[in-house]
Write a structure and sequence with these properties.
Blueprint: E1 5-6, E2 13-14, E3 17-20, H1 34-46, E4 51-53, H2 62-70, E5 79-84, H3 91-105, E6 110-115, H4 129-141, E7 145-151, H5 155-162, E8 169-171, H6 185-191, E9 195-198, H7 234-251, H8 255-264, E10 269-274, H9 278-286, H10 294-308
């Protein structure tokens, strides 16, 4: 079993696998059941997952409220992480958003409060990072939050934010097939004791082997626009997943666990994995018991290169 990791330089310890709660918000997903999500959270805790990542944007607070209901009575056993969206980054907006999240999560303190996307994303107002960070550091000083993190920030944006307060985590998209963060942000994190919280570590289910030669999605499913599903890239994706099968079978693990274990093989890096069912939550937790060998990592590296070689430097996974 891999040990808990310290979140940056804080006193917060988190499980290597973090349960992601995006799907719990229901928006941009299909077939999500509230009762199953609550059971999945409890199953995750029982299997050794202690940290849960949500955001005000996920279902306009619905995900936060579901997480609160699921962790009622066990708040002392879990680490709650949430995020403020890019349209709420002025000082007063950050404070108000935090108070809404505190209420939604039914807690007195948010363990990790993160800036979801940089100011200006999705047409939002350009707000100086100094103003946003002033709000974050004030919330921390008031005991409303315990640590500050950022998500979807480049190295340059991360460096600027760090000028105005301690940043303990970066949440980038990162998986065997999506590795733009390696070029600049991850080395900076390693040099500055910033924990990496990798989201989409299974490449939206691709690395779990959930899609065949002609994937179809229900209306409203955001994965329709994922760049790895585009026709010029997807054939190479399928070849990579096919090549991962023998590695997983030799280890006696699922493809999902193999993908998560690859992310966890990197120092000070956690994998954020969603779950629709208790079985999925337990399967994800099982990845914390898998330590890949040097030869296995090299084989996976070789399988990834025909895919990553087709991608540009744009770290955003979707063509929204």
């Amino acid at each position: 079993m891999q040990k808990a990791l310290r979140l940056g330089t804080s006193d917060i310890m988190i499980s290597p696998v973090v349960m992601g709660m995006w799907q719990a918000g229901k928006e941009m997903w299909a077939g999500i059941d509230d009762a199953e999500i609550k059971k999945s959270v409890r199953a995750a805790v029982d299997a050794g997952i202690s940290a849960f990542d949500t955001a005000e944007m996920y279902g306009k607070g619905h995900s936060e409220r579901i997480l609160a209901a699921a962790t009622a009575g066990i708040r002392d056993r879990v680490v709650l992480m949430t995020k403020v969206f890019s349209n709420h980054l002025q000082y007063d907006q950050v404070i108000a958003a935090c108070h809404r999240s505190l209420k939604n999560l039914n807690t007195d303190v948010i363990d990790l409060y993160q800036i979801h996307w940089p100011a200006g994303s999705f047409g939002s107002r350009q707000v100086p990072i100094e103003e946003t960070m002033r709000a974050m550091t004030d919330l921390k000083a008031q005991g409303k939050i315990r640590a500050v993190g950022v998500s979807n920030f480049s190295r340059a944006q991360l460096e600027e934010a760090a000028r105005y307060g301690r940043i303990d985590s970066l949440q980038p998209p990162y998986s065997l097939l999506w590795r733009q963060a390696e070029r600049d942000a991850l080395p900076y994190c390693a040099a500055n004791d910033i924990t990496v919280l990798a989201y989409s570590p299974m490449a939206q289910g691709i690395l779990a082997g959930r899609f065949g030669a002609a994937p179809t999605f229900e209306k409203g499913d955001h994965r329709r626009g994922h760049r790895l599903f585009q026709p010029d890239i997807y054939p190479q994706v399928l070849k990579a997943v096919e090549g991962l099968g023998p590695i997983a079978r030799r280890r006696g693990v699922s493809l999902a666990q193999l993908a998560l274990a690859w992310v966890l093989s990197h120092p000070d890096t956690c994998a954020i994995a969603g779950a629709r069912s208790p079985a999925q939550a337990a399967e994800n937790a099982g990845a914390m018991q898998v330590e890949l060998s040097t030869s296995e990592l090299a084989a996976m590296e070789a399988l990834s290169r025909p895919v990553t070689g087709l991608l540009d430097d744009n770290p955003v996974q979707w063509d929204f």
